[in-house]
Amino acid sequence: MLNLKLKYKRRGAYTEERKERTEHKVIVDAPLSDTMIYPLNMHIGKPAEPIVEVGDHVKMGQLIAEKQGFVSANIYASVSGTVEAIKDMPSMHGPNRAIVIQNDFKDTPAPLLVEPNQHLTPQEKLALVEKAGIVGMGGATFPTHVKLSPPKEKQIDTLIINGAECETYSTADHRLMIESADDIIAGVKELLSLFPIKQTYIAIETNVHDSVEALKRAIGDDTRIKIKELETLYPQGAEKQLIKTLVNREVPSAGLPLDVHTIVANVSTVRAVYLAIQKGLPLLDRVTTLTGEPIKDPQNFRVRIGTPIQVLIDASGGFVSKTGKMLHGGPMMGKPITSGQVPITKGTSVVTFLPKEEVKEDERTPCIKCAECLNVCPVSLQPILISNAYEKGDIDEAERLGAMDCIDCGNCSFICPANIPLLDNIRQAKTEIRARKEKA
Amino acid sequence: MVNLQDMTLKMTASPHLKSPKKTDWIMKQVVIALLFPLAAAIYFFGIKSLFMVIVGILSSVLFEYAYQKIKDQPVRINDYSAVITGMLLGLSVPVTAPYWSIVVGSFFAIVIIKQLPGGIGRNMFNPAVGARVMLKVFFSPWITNWVTPGRGTDVVSTATPLESIGHFSRTVGEDVPGLWDLFLGVNLGGNIGETSKAMILLAFIYLVVRGVINMKIPLLYVITVAVISSIYGGYDTTYMMTHVLSGTLVFAAVFMATDYTSGALTPGGQTIFAIGAGVLTIGIRILFDFPGGVGFAILIMNALSPLIDKYLAPRIYGHKKRPKVSLS
Predict the structure, then answer these.
(1) Which of B68, B48, B87, B86 lies closest to B203 in space, CA to CA?
(2) Where are the FMN phosphoryl threonine residues found in this chain (chain B) (predicted)?
């Protein structure tokens, strides 16, 4: 799509859209894998602790690892089978402790969390969300029950449902909004029953207009829920940006959306909330896009949590050309990985394969002070100044310039005409600032 | 079929895609934009205009190459920035200017202003503007012999409109060309690239659509001049428009005030830079019997921009105050 790119202060960058490979592809069930891998740290917060032992037989939907403390999440077996090992396995964060289950392909079900379609109190519903192991499925993997537990003095009045899938190749949420609009809206209504919410928005980008029809049909005549179409701009779907754009509130530095009386939840997460509360189901599967130019037949998969990426690669027909990078996530924020054993986890919305020719290191040239990094920074940092301060070893200056407010979106490094590793430097500065704080 | 195991996968951190618009792409866009005023120069002042620009480009690139070779630095002439400086210089003098004056200007711009502080991105002042002002101050007889366009040697010396409207004058003299002529550059003396505002406007539109320049800077600059001259001239539209369309203003607003390196970095700083340049330009024009206000105005704002940026650092999302920045 051609954008008329005017140069002024924006809330993001016009990164290239590459969704056409999968945006019209119906979600398909991924093949079942014989080996399933469940990293215990697949969410933000404390890793879960295994409650099964090697050799145990587990049923599909059985709790296998228990959350530790408040900011943590339960993990369930997404197949039935035998616990083969509890050991370090490849994950998006490098080798990590994981439960490995040998699938018996019987899908023997465990009892549901609760009988379906019961009348539940808000407390019971919240407890179910916590029990079901639901985390932010847009990629952040922040435990959802924490988001839904505001301290007493912080009344929630705004709910934002995030369907603004701004990463270059991602289409999983887009397809989910088209194909499971009813489930999503049912989930929204469950959230509305928990708080005295005054305004509810479903945020999507204008490039996924077809999902609006589906959502509108599902909403029907419920006037509480409004759809907002936003400019296709990266990182439109970042939590803090959505809040600013939709309700003109700013989350205070180092704060949470709760601080401005707002809850932001991704569409996939909302669907999981619906499945937990009304169907009694823990989080067992999700929709993940596997895509990129080197992939023969990119797909949107409904995939069991724990399925190794290699299974999806095979189901997509393998490679037609050489890939230079495999990313857990999209090209702007994804983590590079090298092993096909890395599993799909709760936060895996997309796995991206970049063509070899696009993965190159361009020579760094002098900064020409074009100010583009300032123009595209969604939180109004001056990335080049933070980068300069870091390179001069002036960590105090980097902190004064707001390094800790960086949201890691990658726009500055993306746009820089001089190939300065701005985000790398800002990340390093953040690491040093944190290290100093811990020492102090 | 290719297997994952057979491929070498890179592990560098995000973002994994980069915008294809690199420094040389940006500079090439400016070169393309400068072809508009160059075409007008050739049309109005003859083929010598082209040779003047070629001399500017060759001497600028050569000085940059020689300097970087001598200092054993990486040679960066491929970034096209020296080409721009050369083109600006060639277009910034009247058709009567001797070629050597352009070469002297190139030396001053490239070696003194740009390379001595450290090369591209390090210069406080805009090289072309600095060289222009230097030429004007020290080589005035040669480069301020304004002539109206004529074919061949049939040129007529002329006063510039600025000498009529400047220096406390509040009215437009009889000898000043009409606004339409000022806009198109017809029968107008001046620096060869600056007479046709119509072509500069096209270049402006090109640069804005390409996302190379921030349109706020030229617009605020020109509007500031327009507003102050309008008030000073008793809301005389002709007087105001004569100020806007005369001299280097429009050319400098589009091609020189928008220079990244010597301009302001922050959004607020860019606004102050543009308005400040406008105030200084019209101030110099009115107060002094000296038509070259634009050059000095931009140089003064160049010098002030680091300070302006320091105080106008953008407020970060989620903070109440602007961050405190030390002056680097």
Answers:
(1) B87
(2) 160
CATH at B31: 1.10.3430
Pairing status of strand A323-328 against strand A350-355: antiparallel
| pLDDT reading at B153 higher than 70 | no
* Cross-chain residue pair B9–A324, CB shorter than 8 Å: yes
Structural domain harbouring B60: 23-311
How many domains does the structure of chain B reveal? 1
3-state secondary structure of A59: coil
Q: Does the distance separating the beta carbons of B265 and A319 come in below 8 Å? A: no
Contacts of A253 in chain B (CB under 8 A): 316-319
Please count the CA atoms within 13 angstroms of the CA of B190 that sit on its side-chain side.
32
Does B157 fall in a domain?
Answer: yes
As a whole number of Å, the end-to-end CA separation of chain A is 50
Chain A nearest-CA distance from B324, in A, is 6
Binary contact (B319, A397; C-beta < 8 A): no
* Per-residue pLDDT, B152: 41
**Any domain includes B242:** yes
Q: In this structure, is the dihedral angle defined by the CA atoms of residues B73, B78, B81 and B82, taken in order, positive or negative?
A: positive
pLDDT, one tens digit for every residue, chain A (440 residues): 333 344 455 667 777 778 888 988 999 999 999 999 999 999 999 999 999 999 999 999 999 999 999 999 999 999 999 999 999 999 999 899 999 999 999 999 999 999 998 899 999 999 999 999 999 999 889 999 999 998 888 889 999 999 998 888 889 999 999 999 999 999 999 999 999 999 999 999 888 788 999 999 999 999 999 999 998 888 888 999 999 999 999 999 989 999 999 999 999 999 999 999 999 999 999 999 999 999 999 999 999 999 999 999 999 999 999 999 999 999 999 999 999 999 999 999 999 999 998 888 889 999 999 999 999 999 999 999 999 999 999 999 999 999 999 999 999 999 999 999 999 999 999 999 999 988 87
Chain B residues with beta carbon closer than 8 angstroms to that of A358: 17
Nearest-angstrom CA–CA distance, A378 and A405: 10
According to CATH, the topology of domain A31-284 is Rossmann fold (3.40.50)
Chain A residues within 8 A of B22 when measuring between CB atoms: 362, 365, 417-419
DSSP class per residue in B127-166 = HHHHHHHHHHHHSHHHH---EE--STT--EE---HHHHH-
pLDDT tier at B259 (50, 70, 90 boundaries)? very high
How does pLDDT run across B114-126, given as a tens digit for each residue? 999 999 999 999 9
Residue B5 lies in a domain: no
Q: Does B117 touch chain A (CB under 8 A)?
A: no
Whether A126 contacts A195, CB under 8 Å? no
Residue of A nearest to B217 (CA): A8
Residue B285's identity, in one-letter code, is R
Distance from CA of B102 to the nearest CA of A (A): 25
Residue B221 pLDDT exceeds 90: yes
**A370 annotated to bind ligand:** yes
Beta bridge partners, A85, equal: A100
* C-beta of residue B87 within 8 angstroms of C-beta of residue B27: no
B16 touches chain A (CB under 8 A): yes
**Would you say residue B285 lies in a domain?**
yes
Residue A337, both tokens: 């990985």
Q: Which of A244, A250, A338 sits opposite B9 (nearest CB)?
A: A338
Contact B214 A388 (CB under 8 A): no
B321 CB neighbours in chain A (<8 A) are none
**A166 assigned binding-site residue:** no
Q: How far is B323 from chain A (nearest CA, A)?
A: 6
d(CA B186, CA B192): 12
Give the residue extent of every domain in chain A.
31-284, 372-439
Q: What is the dihedral of CA B120, B123, B126, B129, to 10 degrees?
A: -110
